[in-house]
Amino acid sequence: MLIPSKVIDLSLRDNDHCKRLKDPFEAGRFHLETWLPFSEAGKLERGNANVRPASEKKKPFKAMTETVEKEPTSFHLKNRGIIYRCDRFEYDNAKRLLRVAIPDVPANACDEPDNGVPKYGIADGGHTFEVILQTLQRQGELQEIEGWAEPFVRVHFLAGDVNDLGELEQLVEALNTSSQVQQFTLDEYQDKFEELKVALAQGGFDISQIAFRENEEKEWDVREVVQRMACFLKDRWRSIQPASMYKSKGKALELYTSPSTRDEFRKLFDVAADIVRLPEYVQSQFSQGEGTKGRKFGKMKAVKTLKKEWVRPGTEFATWHEMDLAASLPIAAAMRELLELRGDRYRWKVDYKLVFQAAAEELYKALLAKLRTTRTVTSLGSDMEYWTQTSNIILRAKEDVLSK
Predict the structure, then answer these.
(1) Which of 122, 104, 230, 131 is nearest to 171 (CA)?
(2) At what angle do helices 194-202 and 222-230 cross, to 10 degrees?
(3) CA–CA distance, 221 with 399 (Å, rounded to integer)
């Protein structure tokens, strides 16, 4: 879908308030850092890069508001600013004018995810932007305060090949980690993981290895567990691959904690422990399994060779290699084709280990071919063709195993 662009003009107070930065790795990715007065920063559109609403009840929001009122000239020093995703930008030194191009779409087009509108706007700094908008609404009142001056904010504009980072969702998620950690901690306090704990324990998974709250030093994170299960929601992924679950653990967590979709996860409880460990099984089999013996697995750019054999706590699968989840999760998720619904619970129709052994060589070749053409390993996890290819290979292997 071809989306037209529109331009936002921003006036800078000084040419020294604007600087281009060269990306250390990607020639097609462009950066520009600016100090913008609130009145100019407020001209930006929020966009759809990070649709999480700001919470005025949080302490950081209140602290920013207080800084605006009492120490406006220090706001740009105390605040980390905004990261803004755009199509392109250009700066006119003579006019001190920064022109920022963004997709020209109706405001309501940003409300729904995965609607074909490219990601743009505020990737980080949503609370900061809300403080800016509220400040502009009461600027007349603030200007009556003796010594008050209009604050400035740092804005980092990001244009070009951002999707090669592994889709913008992952970038946004990394920038907003603290908010997500607080969310899954809140979910734990509300006992939303109790059923999951029971199901995993019954499947032989040591749940003491899982962090269900922030600041717990554990081998596993509950968001990682939920992410893997979300890839197996068979009714949800009938016509599309679950690549969005790889892109965002936060989206997977929202699915799990929502009352409207919790039953989809309950159907998986009898096989939950197997599902969670599947990427480690795939990794182990490629590392030292019969199906790939003699192959140069450790030379793949999605693989790191370890100094000694390792078994991830919570699993029983030894490996000499660490495989990137972008490569292993689509293969593991393809195993959902082996499930069948019995009553209100999914069970394995056929042993996933037998099917993997039958499919290992073809899966290995598919991965190798993909890695030869993909620009980054992370983007592999968003490659719908790769997800579909692994599913088809597993389906064929399933039929072969069942026919024997």
Answers:
(1) 122
(2) 80
(3) 35
DSSP 8-state class, residue 251: H
- Residue pLDDT, tens place only, 362-379: 999 999 999 998 878 888
Closest CA to 276 of 337, 325, 344, 236: 325
Percentage helix, strand, coil, to 5, in the chain?
Answer: 50, 20, 30
Contact between 122 and 46 (Cβ < 8 Å):
yes
For the segment 161-171, what is each residue's pLDDT rounded down to a tens digit? 765 444 556 66
* Cβ pair 30, 41 in contact under 8 A: no
Residues with Cβ within 8 Å of 219's Cβ and at least 6 positions away in sequence, in order, are 209, 210, 312, 313, 314
Coil/strand/helix, residue 397: helix
Q: Is 149 helix (H, G, I), strand (E, B) or coil?
A: coil
Is residue 84 within 8 Å of 124, Cβ to Cβ?
A: no
Query: What letters, b where the CB count within 10 A reaches 16 and e where it falls short, cover 136-145?
Result: beeeeebeee
Contact between 114 and 40 under an 8 Å Cβ cutoff? The reply is no
